[in-house]
Amino acid sequence: xxxxxxxxxxxxxxxxxxxxxxxxxxxxxxxxxxxxxxxxxxxxxxxxxxxxxxxxxxxxxxxxxxxxxxxxxxxxxxxxxxxxxxxxxxxxxxxxxxxxxxxxxxxxxxxxxxxxxxxxxxxxxxxxxxxxxxxxxxxxxxxxxxxxxxxxxxxxxxxxxxxxxxxxxxxxxxxxxxxxxxxxxxxxxxxxxxxxxxxxxxxxxxxxxxxxxxxxxxxxxxxxxxxxxxxxxxxxxxxxxxxxxxxxxxxxxxxxxxxxxxxxxxxxxxxxxxxxxxxxxxxxxxxxxxxxxxxxxxxxxxxxxxxxxxxxxxxxxxxxxxxxxxxxxxxxxxxxxxxxxxxxxxxxxxxxxxxxxxxxxxxxxxxxxxxxxxxxxxxxxxxxxxxxxxxxxxxxxxxxxxxxx
Length: 405
Fold this sequence. Notes:
The protein has about 400 residues and is mostly beta strands. It has a single domain (about 15-400), classed as Methylamine Dehydrogenase, Chain H (7 Propeller). Helix content is about 5%, strand content about 45%. The chain has two helices and 36 strands. It has helices at about 5-10, 150-155; strands spanning about 15-20, 40, 55-60, 70, 75-80, 85-90, 100-105, 110, 115, 120-125, 125-130, 135-140, 145-150, 170, 175-180, 185, 195, 210, 215-220, 225-230, 235-240, 255, 260-265, 270-275, 280-285, 295-300, 300-305, 315-320, 325-330, 335-340, 345-350, 355-360, 365-370, 380-385, 385-390, 395-400. The strands form nine sheets. Strands 1-18-19-20-21 form a five-stranded antiparallel sheet. The termini are far apart.
């Protein structure tokens, strides 16, 4: 007999899919923000810069890596690696002064790319971090002391992919969820296993939770494709095969009104699926946006994101979420990254330019632009509390004042 929950996924009338809603806030507690959608509720920040760009409040040297930022209660958390030592940094948001750091031995170089790829996740008084080689730590937010730790290979039989683990942990109620080949759910207080899925080919994406009827599910974009799990027990209720060269599915799925958008690089492209009729039904598929390492953002019916692999030739693209139709393309930014706030895209180009532009299907309208970093920038910038945080792959970090007051 089909359970009520699985029946909902299979398209029984009355079932719906939607992203869980949270109260607006300026904190950014995890990768892609409070709702894991790349959108901030923050308003009133300034784009009125001169040619020098926004005021630099402070800088920091983090060590190599691609970890983005979590910002909670006046603290900024991120990661880097120097000489085979990973460090989790907790810094004061207003000054960059170190509150604490936690360091541990970790492999520095993964296929020519150095340092951690994942972003710390903050939940209450706990900080969860995952290294490239699969070391998982639960740290105290106030002190950085280790509450518990696990190793993906030893404790869960998960081996890192070619370029190391990149999943940013997801907290859902009492669970900590990671996609490391198998998708696993742990007790966030102890690290004990709650459930573990079959072992799919590992990739580089971070999972997202979404609602389905009165139940919640996990969307995982692993090396073999898009897989949907029931959140409470890990039961698989849907799978769409989606293979990419080198197994690089890196972008987090976007879920809205029962539809799930995925995208990956190497010319693979993107697609929209509808949950229902016993499977994930493809609504459209094209190669207009092929996310290599950063996710798109959905805003008012349009998807904004970078097409093509890193290396400078990428373009920023706006396409219609429902149809896949391209609205516009913009070059000159390489294959960068972006988030949204107050109807504006906050873009960090591959070459280190911070660009603010309207999020509109009518065309690319630049509002402000400034060179804020050098070298290669693949890490998503973060706006929180009137400040924008950016970094490059070498670990040079900058905090910029866009307070508007």
